[in-house]
Structure formats: structure tokens, C-alpha cells
Design a protein that fits this description.
Blueprint (H helix, E strand, L loop, with lengths): L1 E7 L3 H12 L4 E4 L11 E4 L2 E4 L5 E2 L6 H8 L8 E3 L6 E5 L2 E5 L3 H11 L4 H16 L24 H8 L3 H7 L16 H12 L1 E4 L4 H13 L3 E3 L4 E7 L2 E7 L3 E10 L3 H7 L7 H9 L5 E9 L10 E5 L18 E7 L10 E8 L17 H21 L7 E7 L1 H8 L30 E3 L8 H17 L1 H10 L1
Parallel strand pairs: 1-2, 1-13, 2-10, 7-15, 13-19
Antiparallel strand pairs: 3-4, 5-9, 6-9, 7-8, 11-12, 12-13, 14-17, 14-18, 15-16, 16-17
The protein binds flavin-adenine dinucleotide.
The site of flavin-adenine dinucleotide has 37 residues, from helix 1, helix 9 and helix 13.
């Protein structure tokens, strides 16, 4: 059977493309190497506790806001079990042992921050104005039918967030607190563009929500719609090769044996992984060299805590905790200093609103810390690796216990993951948090467009525009626009 569109990978981007194109009558086939769909959206269950792996909260989901509008078109709005987070401080940055709340709404954000920084009204006003300006520059946020190559937002890719903040305030603590959300983009001072933190913060400042019982609700719903529209989804189907004919992709090879033919192919896998799989495809050498030379974001060590029944109260906020006064230093830890901070998320569950069953703690971990086991696979990494993870978990536990007393004794069991886990489950080279690093010093070099140098092969997913639910959704629209036409698709989305 020859499909209209073959999609490699069922991450958020692959599923969104599958939904959009199947809705438009295309005969789509999604191939996913894992048993579970969703990539970073996937959850896992231990002793009746559901853990999210890569989706802890989403922004701008109130009526009329950006994600709500996109999700209405994707039939997700109104169909997800969500919990609105604390309006007075959905995120808290803990810096130099003091807590700073990030409130919802631009005005409330300013007023809350003024309690800590009474002389900084002008800086905070400029900051929130910039949030609005940057998000306004993305025409897709407003479903605007603008010119195809809308590039207004590119300007914000060529300014560093650190440099920008220095222009609005001389208060080093305020600057550090505003940079306290760096773990949301695994940023570095030398590379992170203004665009990234501004788009992410402007999404959450509008409204912030958690998933009740896990983010895999999104993949379950989208997968159901796709098959309902006549699409095919095949699990445990790893694409291991691409077959080329006359400069175009003719088919993919699955699990080194089965051949699946298509007219158009969309890759939701990491672009460097695609180049590995497609080593016979005649990409231009300059294209290959550029993709392969882009840095990866740092990876994560994650502690998943399964809590005793009614033992630890649910907290409706995320905490970004720094154990250094230099926020940019956190990824550059020495072995003795690790971990220099962490982010902690508390999961709401449908059957107990007062207490939490699952707590997830993420901290930076570089690839070199786990590279000794790079030739191993999941569950077969040996005793030394288990011991390594146990030691790391103990160190992290010590830190979180100092901020959240009683968390240890309330924990029934814990589980851990490292950058190796993300490499093997998602296919992220060196297990990076959010894919490839954006670099304001050379923005075009670190950008990947949906089109490749092969006419019927497109990219989608977090490496195209930006990561996260908003970024990946924009990428899916950009990718599908290459097939359906931009104005046509936006017109459909506006009518939804
Ligand atoms: C720890 C962590 C926390 C996060 N928290 C949030 C958050 O709170 N909010 C938010 O908005 N974003 C968050 N993100 C980011 C967000 O999860 C990602 O940006 C997004 O889910 C990536 O989607 P994607 O479409 O790029 O696909 P991916 O999730 O990268 O999925 C790619 C898919 O392709 C499959 N695949 C790979 N190779 C092959 C192959 N050869 N053949 C077939 N299939 C293949 C993989 O198995 C996977 O299913 C977080 C990420 C991480 C890592």
C-alpha cells in the first residue's frame, strides 16, 4: 500500500501533522519505534502512580488565548483534564534562599515582583512590554494571513536574553530572578536568544495549567482522531532506512525489513538522527554539515517520587531552585558541586485533590557523566550504572529535603532517569532536554526549516521553531503548510 504521507515518529509534532493531514483527507501512516505513542508526552505507571516524562505544564489555555485556539482546531480544547495553577505564583524561583513568585497576568506579575523589587517598576514594565512585542511578532499566534515568509520574529533570535536584560535593569538579583526560568529552555549565557524565554514566559504568564493524570491524554486523543479519520498508526515500527529513487524518497524501511511506500514523508525524529538513518539520501553536504554542527541542549537527571497515601500535600506551583548565585553556572557544575539546582513539579490526580501521588524533580546532567554506558540499552546497563544513579538520587534528595522538609519520609518509592534514558526512548542524540540549541550569535545556522534539500521530505517537531507544546504546535502548522498551503490552513484554523 502506498500512503499519501508517511510520518516517522509519533511525538507531539508527528501526531499533530497526522491529525491535520488526515482531517484534510490525506491517507497518513505514522510509524513509531516505541510501543507507547507521544515521544516526550509519554507517561509511565508505577504502583498506581502516573508519571509524566516530558510535559509538566502548558500555558495560554484560557478561552481566546494562543494554545487554546490551536487546541480548539486540534479538538483538544475542552477534552483535556487540566488543573489551573496558582494565579499568584504558578512558578517560583528560589534564589539565594529567597522565593520569588511569578504571577499570572502581566499587571499582576509586575505588582508581585514590585514587592521584592520596589524600585524596578520601569524595568518590569519594559520586560512585560517585550513579552507582548515578541509574541505579537509571531503571526501564527493570531492566525494572521500574512505573507508566506514572515520573518519579523527573526530579529529576536539575534539578541541574547542576558544582554537584553542588562539593558533594562542594573539590579543583579532581578536579572537573576528573571533568568530563573532558564531550565525551561536549558539556556546558556553565550547562546540563548531573547525569543526563547520570551515566547515561553509569555505563554505561561497568560495562564498555566497542569495535566490531571498525565500529559499522554494529548497523544491518546490525537491518535484516536487520526485513526477515526482513516489514518494508520503502527507501533514498534522503527524506521531504519530510507529508499531513494530519482532524488526523491520512495519508501522507508521499517525494523530493517518491511518497506512502506509514500508520496510525501515527514520526519518527527531529531534531524541528526534522520541524517544517520538516511545516510544514502543525497542531502547537500553543506546542509548535513550545518545540521551536524549544531550544539545539543544539556540533558537531565530526573527523580520520580511515588508518594505515600495522603502524606505530602499537593502544591499548585513549580519551583526553580538555584544553589548558586550565578544562574548561568548551573549546567557547568563540577562533580563536587552537582546538582547546582533543580526544578520540581507536583502532579495533580483525579482521585485526591489534597495530596500528591507523584513528584518529579529534574536537574541538569551532562552527557559526559553517563557516556561510560553509551553502548548499553534500557534495563541492561549493569550494576555500576545502578549505583551511579542511586548516588545521584541521594544527593538530589538531600537538596530537596532542605527546601521541602518531610519529602523524603513521605516517599514510598523512587525511580530515576538520565540523558541515556532520553536518548533511548526519544532518539535524542546525547539525551538533550529540548533538542538542538538555538544560538543568537548565528541564528540562521542553528535553525532548521521544515523543508529539506530532498523535495518530498519534510521535518517537524521541536527542532524546527522551538520546543514545548507551543513551539511544536507552530512547527506542525508550518510543516503541514508546505503540503496544504499556508493561507488555506490558517483559514481552516480560524474557522474551527
Ligand atoms: C524533562 C522534560 C520536561 C518537559 N516539560 C515540558 C513542559 O512542562 N511543557 C512543555 O510545553 N514542554 C515540555 N518539554 C518539551 C516537550 O516535551 C517537547 O518539546 C515536545 O514534546 C517534543 O515533541 P516532538 O514532536 O519534537 O517529538 P519527540 O517528543 O522528540 O518525539 C519523537 C518521536 O519519534 C520517535 N522516533 C525516534 N526515532 C524513530 C525512528 N527511527 N522510527 C520511528 N520513530 C522514531 C520517538 O520514539 C518519539 O516518539 C519537556 C521536555 C523534557 C525533556
Amino acid at each position: 500500500m502506498k500512503y499519501d504521507v508517511v510520518i516517522i515518529g509519533s511525538g507531539l509534532g508527528g501526531l499533530q501533522c497526522g491529525y491535520i493531514l488526515s482531517l484534510e483527507g490525506y491517507n497518513v501512516c505514522i510509524l513509531e519505534k516505541n510501543n507507547q505513542l507521544g515521544g516526550c508526552l509519554q507517561t509511565f505507571r508505577r504502583k498506581n502512580t502516573v508519571f509524566d516524562t516530558g510535559m509538566h505544564y502548558i500555558g495560554s489555555m484560557d478561552e481566546g488565548q494562543v494554545l487554546n485556539n490551536f487546541f480548539r482546531y486540534l479538538k483538544l480544547t475542552g477534552n483535556l483534564k487540566l488543573k489551573r495553577m496558582d494565579e499568584d505564583g504558578y512558578d517560583v524561583v528560589k534564589y539565594n534562599e529567597k522565593e520569588y513568585k511569578f504571577a499570572m497576568g502581566h499587571d499582576r506579575f509586575i505588582e508581585t515582583m514590585l514587592e521584592y523589587f520596589p524600585k524596578e517598576r520601569e524595568a518590569l514594565t519594559k520586560y512585560t512590554a517585550k513579552l507582548k512585542e515578541v509574541s505579537k511578532s509571531v503571526d501564527l499566534f493570531n492566525f494572521q494571513e500574512t505573507a508566506y515568509h514572515q520573518t519579523g520574529y527573526l530579529h529576536y533570535f539575534s539578541v541574547g536574553i542576558d544582554d537584553y536584560l542588562s539593558t533594562i535593569t542594573k539590579d543583579k538579583t532581578l536579572k537573576s530572578v528573571l533568568l530563573g526560568l532558564t531550565p525551561l529552555y536549558a539556556g546558556t549565557k553565550e547562546q540563548s536568544p531573547l525569543y526563547l524565554p520570551m515566547i515561553i514566559h509569555s505563554s505561561f504568564i497568560d495562564s498555566a495549567y497542569r495535566f490531571i493524570d498525565g500529559g499522554s491524554q494529548i497523544s491518546d486523543l490525537l491518535a484516536g482522531y487520526i485513526t477515526g479519520n482513516g489514518g494508520t498508526i503502527i507501533r514498534k515500527a522503527e524506521v531504519t532506512g530510507l529508499i531513494v529513487e530519482s532524488g526523491r524518497i520512495k519508501a522507508v524501511k521499517v525494523n530493517n525489513s518491511e518497506i512502506i511506500e509514500g508520496k510525501t514523508f515527514i520526519s518527527n525524529v531529531h534531524p541528526k538522527k534522520l541524517l544517520e538513518i538516511a545516510d544514502n539520501v543525497p542531502f547537500r553536504p553543506a546542509y548535513k554539515n550545518r545540521i551536524n554542527s549544531i550544539d545539543e541542549t544539556i540533558g537531565a537527571f530526573t527523580l520520580y517520587l511515588s508518594m505515600k497515601e495522603n502524606a505530602f500535600k499537593y502544591i499548585n506551583k513549580n519551583y526553580y531552585v538555584f544553589k548558586t548565585d550565578k544562574v548561568w553556572a548551573a549546567p557547568k557544575y563540577s562533580p563536587e558541586e552537582w546538582p547546582m539546582g533543580y526544578m520540581i513539579h507536583f502532579s495533580p490526580s483525579s482521585d485526591n485533590g489534597k495530596y500528591t501521588k507523584a513528584i518529579i524533580v529534574n536537574t541538569y546532567m551532562r552527557w559526559e557523566d553517563v557516556s561510560a554506558w553509551e553502548n548499553t540499552t534500557v534495563e541492561k546497563r549493569g550494576d555500576e550504572y545502578r549505583e551511579f544513579k542511586r548516588n545521584k538520587a541521594e544527593k538530589l534528595f538531600e537538596l530537596i529535603e532542605s527546601d521541602f522538609p518531610g519529602i523524603r519520609s513521605s516517599t514510598e518509592a523512587y525511580y530515576t532517569s538520565t540523558p541515556l534514558t532520553y536518548r533511548d526512548y526519544i532518539g535524542a542524540p546525547s539525551g538533550g532536554f529540548y533538542g538542538m540549541m538555538k544560538d543568537f550569535r548565528d541564528p540562521l545556522r542553528s535553525m532548521v526549516m521544515p523543508r529539506t534539500t530532498v523535495p518530498n521530505l519534510l521535518h517537524t517537531g521541536q527542532n524546527i521553531n522551538i520546543h514545548g507544546v507551543i513551539g511544536v504546535t507552530i512547527c506542525a502548522v508550518l510543516t503541514c503548510s508546505e503540503i496544504l498551503g499556508r493561507q488555506y490552513l490558517i483559514g481552516k484554523m480560524r474557522k474551527a
